[in-house]
User: What shape does this take?
Amino acid sequence: MPESPFLKRNRLNNLSYAIRGPIFDKAQQLESSGQKIINLNIGNPAPFGFDVPDEMMHDMIANLRNAQGYSHHLGIFAARKAVMHYTQQQGIHGVAMEDVFIGNGVSELIIMSMQAIVNEGDEILIPSPDYPLWTTAVALTGGKPVHYICDEASDWNPDIMDIKSKITSRTKGIVLINPNNPTGAVYEESVLKAIVKMAKEHKLIIFSDEIYDKILYDGNKHFPVASLSDDVLIFTFGGLSKNYRAAGFRGGWLILSGPVHRAKSISEGLNLLASMRLCANVPTQFAIQTALGGYQSIDDLVAPTGRLTKQRDLMHYLLTDIPGITCVKPKGALYLFPKFDLKKFDIADDEEFAYKLLEEKHVLIVPGSGFNYPNKDHFRVVFLPQQDELELAARLMRSFFDNYSTSPSKVVAEV
Assistant: This one.
């Protein structure tokens, strides 16, 4: 008689993280068999030649001997003080040292926040499309993710009326991702103020993921939502992964602002969870003060002649030049979120598209449904690779779409 298998926790059965899901696994198999894959699936700057600033590397190396032991569970003094000073530059009022938590990247701090706050059945409003960690973190803690619409026709800004319609007696908070992953939206100040007003009226906590707050194009301005209110409890998340190209260093921070005196219980919960993981990565913490207080090299990359801006412009042009493909031009972050017209192509949905594109053209993207977007006609690409690789990827996608076009004429040669 066969032995029964050991099973994972039931709550994990319906959870996923598409950025590193089955399609990514398939790409790994192809690479292991010797195939060259064009990776447009993940916002990981280092493999594409975006290096951490030298002064950050220097300070980490210089302090390695001081980083051998555990640090304070909330983070080293210099790092937390630098984050506190950064909030003052952003116009966020009243943040004290004890309101700053240093973590192993924003991902850990998101999960800790949900663990500290969400009770069984609590509802958290999350944008659709979203960064899928938010949905998974809420569900994993026993909460209910409730997705609100971000409107493609309004540059992917949140739909205020849809948010209002989804607030119930069980709603505990609302998540903002601004600048947005996966759409590249940078939310308008009026939209943020409307959300703050709703949060105040319904006594909701705002969780604001602002990891891309310096990656802005065409003069667009990012408004830290915590700078717009002193009387709403706001969790602001930031870190080194994107602005400073230090994704592998795992350095992030969480800032509590607003009526923190009314959230003593939550602070105690976060302190407990921070203590249980002992401390965040200590060598990386020595780079935080240098990062926030030093030369902001990201400004060069997002300038009109900067590499990120030029690559965004190139990939947006190449993709929207394909008949049947449209895309709102991103105002921030590192991604394009194009739409393909299902009526023009013999493709069932975004997942079939992603699998076939990988198998036939060896280009790896993420289907839009992996970001909890209900319409099966979008996909996300990063524009981090060098220009020649982006051009090759676009040619391969053009060839793919032409092969699956419902139109009888095929005008693009195979690549």
